């Protein structure tokens, strides 16, 4: 019959393995549901598209403003050259106004050239991130079968570990179960190597070693309180 301390050590190792398996399963399930790289690239793509649309809107607004300005400029130039205005002062004022409009029109053209460059840069940024996103989605799709296979294996191992854990726990005496569950320090069980508790490195007393060799009772470390088991 297995010693209670050894059974508890086996149980503890299975608990630890179960925790690792559950973490791995959660990680792969999350990756299969939403790949982190794909999610990050989708967010970047959305931001790039918003920037591209905003820049394109500014270009359209600039085009409309320039066209309106061009129409007004042509109208004033036509009126200036019509000969209908005879007053020298009015002619001078209108001529200055036309020159001002021409200067402003040149400034608007220069500004629109910059806007067009910004729009081209935004288009290129969107194309680049969409290319990365397409590649990431293809990579995620290609990795999915292997991840699913790994997930199936982990779930199968988890079922085995849970069954073994339950079986071993049923073999542990009620007194040993209570001693294990009441432990406040983790891990609850520590091996003894070279006459020392491997958790706190304190030497085990000769009486404690004798009781461990007999193996009939639960022996606790006098320093850290863990349940001791001979390695």
Please describe what this structure looks like.
The chain is rod-shaped. By secondary structure, it is mostly helical. α1 (4-33) runs antiparallel to α3 (88-171) and α2 packs antiparallel against α3. It is 77% helix and 5% strand. The longest helix has 84 residues, at 88-171.
Any key phrases for this structure?
231 residues; mainly alpha; 3-stranded mixed β-sheet; 77% helix; rod-shaped
In short:
This protein has five helices and three strands, in the order ααααββαβ. By secondary structure, the chain is mostly helical. The model has no long low-confidence stretch (mean pLDDT 92).
Largest sheet: 3 strands, mixed
Number of strands: 3
Instruction: Give unreliable regions as ranges.
Output: none
Indicate the structural class. mainly alpha
* Helix percentage range: over 70%
Radius of gyration: 40 Å
Shape: rod-shaped
The helix/strand order is HHHHEEHE
SSE layout:
Layout: H1 4-33, H2 36-81, H3 88-171, H4 174-181, E1 189-193, E2 196-197, H5 206-214, E3 227-230
Parallel strand pairs: 1-3
Antiparallel strand pairs: 1-2
């Amino acid at each position: 019959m297995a010693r209670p301390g050894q059974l508890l050590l086996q149980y503890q190792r299975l608990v630890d393995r179960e925790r690792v398996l559950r973490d791995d399963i959660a990680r792969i399930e999350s990756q299969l549901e939403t790949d982190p790289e794909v999610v990050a690239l989708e967010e970047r793509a959305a931001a790039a598209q918003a920037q591209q649309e905003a820049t394109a809107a500014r270009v359209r607004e600039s085009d409309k403003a320039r066209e309106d300005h061009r129409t007004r400029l042509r109208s004033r130039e036509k009126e200036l050259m019509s000969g209908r205005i005879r007053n020298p002062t009015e002619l001078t004022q209108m001529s200055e106004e036309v020159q001002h409009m021409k200067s402003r029109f040149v400034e608007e053209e220069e500004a629109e050239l910059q806007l067009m460059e910004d729009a081209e840069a935004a288009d290129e940024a969107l194309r680049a991130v969409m290319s990365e996103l397409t590649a990431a989605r293809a990579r995620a799709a290609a990795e999915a079968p292997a991840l699913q296979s790994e997930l199936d294996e982990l779930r199968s191992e988890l079922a085995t570990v849970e069954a073994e854990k339950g079986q071993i726990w049923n073999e542990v005496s009620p007194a040993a179960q209570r001693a294990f569950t009441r432990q406040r320090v983790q891990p609850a069980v520590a091996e003894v190597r070279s006459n020392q508790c491997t958790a706190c490195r304190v030497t085990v007393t000769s009486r404690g070693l004798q009781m461990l060799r007999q193996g009939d009772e639960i022996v606790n470390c006098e320093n850290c309180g863990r349940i001791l088991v001979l390695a």
